[in-house]
Amino acid sequence: MNIKRAKQEIRDSIEAYLSKDEFGEYRIPAIRQRPILLMGPPGIGKTQIMEQIARECGIALVSYTITHHTRQSAVGLPFIVKKNYGEEEFSVTEYTMSEIISSVYDKMEKTGLKEGILFIDEINCVSETLAPMMLQFLQGKTFGNQKVPEGWVIVTAGNPPEYNKSVREFDVVTLDRIKKIDVEADFDVWKEYAYQQGIHPAVISYLELRRKNFYRVENTVDGKIFATARGWEDLSRLIQVYEILGKTVDREVVSQYIQHRMIAKDFASYLALYYKYRTDYKVEDILKGKWDSITLGKIRTASLDEHLSIVSLLNGKLSELFTECYLTDAYLTKLHDYMVYFREAQDSLTAKNLMEKAEADLEKDKKSELLTKQQERIQKRVVSFFENASGLESASESTGSDKTGSGSEPAGGGSAAAESEVLSSNRNYEFVKALFESETEAYENRTDEISFTLQNVFDFMEAAFGDSQEMVAFITELNANYYSLWFIRENGSDQYYRHNKGLLFDDRQKMLLGQMEEVENILNNGIK
Fold first, then answer.
1. Do the bridges between strand 179-182 and strand 36-39 make them parallel or antiparallel, or are there none, so unpaired?
2. Which of 11, 180, 192, 393 is most buried (most C-beta within 10 Å)?
3. Minimal CA–CA distance to 234: which of 196, 274, 194, 261?
4. What are the tens digits of pLDDT across the range 408-446?
């Protein structure tokens, strides 16, 4: 299965293992909770999905690569104790707690989470001295004489023997005690992930054109050559930073990540053309709705690969805008929650109090290790908003605050100072509320700008390509991008709906024609 299905299978298993009955007992007892073995080629995201599953299930994660461990660190060190058996005293060997088991308890104390995943990577590549311990671990869920704590699910990962010479095969006894999931590389699944993670559009478009280069491991006389999903993601991050720094990514740089000479050379050439097309076709002008007949004429005489590169450039730029919009929306939603809290207790709170609360919430969530990097950045923006508001608020009070004369008594019988403090608190809330509304208005204006940009791109696509395969490719990529679909769902796009409907009709027509051809073949075979 692909990594997306594998992730769902593991998550379903964990939810089942951690399900409790009305007495608080696990419905599947620990002895029946089979360790999960995720078997697949390196670099396809086995470790990453464990982090995602832990966050989504709200549980802790302890991760180890077992090849980095010796028998002593995994099992513990021996020591001698004296024990009496019957009327005689004997020296008995016991073991200190395993480093791995102690890490589980440390994680429970640090995060406050009592349930979690113990993830052991490269489980079938252990040393000869550690191999018996790993079998004991899989069969009995113990390291040395210490059991894995209740509520912790064991998930392991390994590589098939064709990818690693040091792989050890499990015997039938062990295999009969685990839940084995075989996983393979799948570009379409990775592409969904790539859009969500902001992978460079040149990487996505190149692999869309040359899917066979997404994941390749080959044996040659000079050793293994390979390209993996991990390599493409790491290369993407480097390209993005190099663009900021004004540095060039050439074949030598690419080959440091994509260790397959032919693929590295091919992608480096594609990347150079990608940058050239961005300049030649003035992509930034197209986004603003500016192009001329010369540009359209030049496109019509270009090759299909060049057309698809232009489509990719436009999709990449739109993706950046949609992602920006999504993150701002998530930030304002989070900020709104704090503003509601502020409104309910405005008599006793200031922007500084809200900043301190947001900081405390951030630290609490970071401690639990359940925050994604994206969520962490959003929370930091909330902290920054209240920090800025607090500074502006203080400056406003020091220069233009109302002063109440001392000794005067208000009509309600309270002191003038107390009433002044309440009025000041209310003014604080109104002041911060105005800042929040200003941010919201700026977001709405930005959303309108991005909607117009999307319309400009559709207008250009229709003028340059009409209802061609390039338009199909454009719509298909919009549909593969989480942020694109989110933006269109939230803000609409008549052109998208029109073209997407036509695409869906074509897909349905192809499916029906295929089914008819299949039936015809069956009938023909039956006649023969």
1. parallel
2. 393
3. 194
4. 444 444 554 444 444 455 678 888 899 999 999 999 999
- Distance CA(185)–CA(20), nearest Å, equals 35
CB-CB contact of 107 with 116 (8 Å): yes
Which tokens belong to 75?
Answer: 């099992």
**Amino acid identity of 87?**
E
Burial of 65 (0-12, 13-18, 19+ CB in 10 A): middle
How many angstroms from the chain centroid is the CA of residue 489? Answer: 21
Give a three-class secondary structure readout of 368-401. HCCCCHHHHHHHHHHHHHHHHHHHHHHHHHHHHC
Residue with tokens 């509601």: 340
Q: Which of 123, 119, 121 is nearest to 136 (CA)?
A: 123
Q: How far apart are alpha carbons 57 and 244 in whole angstroms?
A: 36
Q: What is the pLDDT of residues 66-123, one digit of tens each?
A: 766 666 666 677 778 888 888 888 888 777 777 788 888 988 988 888 999 999 887 7
* DSSP secondary structure letters along 183-248: ----HHHHHHHHHHHT--HHHHHHHHH-GGGSSEEEEETTEEEEE-HHHHHHHHHHHHHHHHHT--
Q: Which residues contact 292 (CB under 8 A, 6 or more apart)?
A: none
Exposure pattern of 470-485 as b/e (b: 16+ CB <10 Å)? bbbbbbbbbebbebbe
Counting DSSP H helices and E strands in the chain, the numbers are 20, 11
Q: Of 366, 374, 424, 364, whose CA–CA distance to 394 is shortest?
A: 424
Q: Which residue in this structure is represented by tokens 């390749």?
A: 216
| SS3 call for 32 | helix
d(CA 422, CA 497): 53
Give the strands of the sheet with 116-121, arranged side by side: 60-65, 116-121, 152-158, 36-39, 179-182
